[in-house]
Amino acid sequence: MPEPAASARPATAEDVEPAVRTLRRAFVDYPWTRHVIAADAHEERLAEFQRLFVSRIGLECGRVWVTPGREAVSVWTTPDSTGIGEVFVELAPRFAELSGDRLAQSERAEAALNPHRPEEPVWFLGTVGVDPGSQGAGLAGAVIRPGVAEAEHAGVPVYLETSRERNVRIYRRFGFEVVADVEIPDDGPRTWGMMRRPGAGGL
């Protein structure tokens, strides 16, 4: 696989708003977020969802990597993510507000995926996005590889979910394999759970 066009660095608080702009642009037409976030003021809701995810979940409890120009972002939780449960409980009412009239669909979608999520300790790639104007330059790999490498070093798997079939092929290049293929209820998007075991290659 070719080397990424840029290396990634750990994000700081100063990166939050540029990262949110990138993720907003990257996810504006993503099947999952369209399904679980209300259409009314959708982009504003999406941006606030990503803001909370980057700042409160990624920076506060997990890991976030960005490329130097913040054209690509990845947000992770890890087996060492302390306090993550409390943060999710705290944020649940706000996430429900952001779902708006899609809340029931969001809850049923999560319920469909929960049985397939790993119970063992994993690095969880919660979100990764590349600004549409910068796609095709290897930037996704630049922000995925650091987390995969740290998980590999720790000897633990990496898990992710994607609702775009073309992403399945991309993630396979990093050593991920499909472990769940889920039809989301309410005409939701087909979603794949993927796992990368230590030693799978792709780095």
From TrEMBL:
Residues 113-176 form the N-acetyltransferase domain. GO terms for molecular function: acyltransferase activity, transferring groups other than amino-acyl groups. It comes from the Bacteria. The keyword Transferase applies. Coiled coil: none annotated. Transmembrane segments: none annotated. Keywords: Transferase. Pfam families: Acetyltransf_1 (PF00583). This is GNAT superfamily N-acetyltransferase.
